[in-house]
Amino acid sequence: MKKSTWTRRDLVQMASLGIDPHEASRQLSLFKNPPPFVRLDRPALLGDGIRKLTQAEIRDSLKDFDRARRQGRFLKFVPASGAASRMFFLISKFLHRPSLHRADLKREAMSGEKESEQLLSFVEALPRAAFWEDLKRTLANKGLDAERLRREGRYHELLSAVLFPEGLDYSRKPKGLIKFHAYGKEGRTPVEEHLVESSQYVKDSSNRCRIHFTISPEHAKDYRRHFKEIQNRYEGKRGVWFEIDFSTQEPSTSTLAVDVHNRPFRDRRGQLVFRPAGHGALISNLHRTKGDIVFIKNVDNVVMEPHLDSTVHWKKVLGGFLVGIQQKIFNSLKKVNSGKVSSRDLAEIEDFIQKELGISLGKGYSKLPLVEKAPILKLVLDRPLRVCGVVPNTGEPGGGPFWVKQKDGRLSLQIVESAQVNMADPRQKRLFGKSTHFNPVDLVCSLRNWKGKLFDLKKYMDQDAVFISHKSSEGRELKALELPGLWNGAMADWITLFVEVPLETFNPVKTVFDLFKPRHQAKV
Fold first, then answer.
1. Which domain holds residue 476?
2. How many C-beta atoms lie closer than 10 Å to residue 6's C-beta?
3. Does residue 26 lie in a domain region?
4. Which of 179, 251, 175 is nearest to 213 (CA)?
5. Of the candidates 218, 175, 214, 257, which has an alpha carbon nearest to the alpha carbon of residue 482?
6. Rounded to two decimals, what is the model's pTM?
């Protein structure tokens, strides 16, 4: 009899986290026998998987959007658990030096050190940062003058007050609570900008505006405190009332870590190490919103209010376009479920599936008798639907839209990240490089079926769509299992449509230096 991998202590630990031992064993086997890479057939291009909406389609979409908005069908979902530490990585790197003075940085910049040149530019621009006034007050409380430190080149004292606990403590705060944008002497966080943005396209006929944030447990108190401070102010200014909800990633979605020999990794106390599985695990959080139509957008992809018009316009267009497609799907499903579907009806539905949804019905479908076709059409149509805005690729790291070959040989539209592709295969690498568009995480999702019932979203995941990353813990190397993303493997079996949106709608803040780009600064 085969000995169990798990000890009694392991099983007690898993039970406390809500992790099924069979799932942990499945994950362990994935480390030993990783799933195959995604097989790219070709990149999705304009006219071949990516739609460029006509003016007539935009007008129709805006009408459909406004009707659904008034009915209260929309909700906004914002993944906001990320820490700001990556934003300030370069500054943190310099602060590990024993001294940090402008003269040293200038000398290094003159010799071609790009990072030193970048840090000098940052300090020069610092008075334009939304957190400058807070920084000045923090330093003044310690008897220091921020402007004088900057002028005299005493950068270690100045920048320490940005990152460390005795100052603004930005290295430990979540990105959603960093002040991004300056409005006079007041600063707004990304969370505040999401409230402002949501009030322009999520509110219903009763002026209710529903928004859901996923946050880390360690940041929960800070987020709740921030909302308590700002909610009434923005409700008063915008004439809306916000129905704000929070969730954290469930411990049961964490994945097992292993050592370099693919054995379960254990900490110094002998306990198994489970790690958060990434954005892909948020499919459970999305399901718990019980939403109807949900906008998904990352917490750092915001702009200042004067630059917001294009973003709001295209959110409405994407939302309305989904409503229009959804209605066609629902009408088709009503026909095939009526029991009285005609051959003409079937032909129209088949045409819609293949031409508008870009879904192949398979080589053998046309030879089937009429009675066998309707059940296949039900399976094809009765799934969650997502419309993904994609922008022209300008070299940003991340995923893009592709035609992917499934296990059964059919093609489907997917968002694919580089980690999912076998870059050692010259053809696959070449196909990935030919992508013309990028995924900015600008999604609108339909979570309910034609009867209004919530889909069980976990049924539409690709459980094997994982990749293995190398990390460390307690000074030892480990391997972690990560889900490629909420919009990748977690939505692999959804009906997917790609729509081109302007690049100006994508304004992420990955590093603090991005905050000085035009759309994060006030118009002059």
1. 34-82+266-520
2. 17
3. no
4. 175
5. 257
6. 0.92
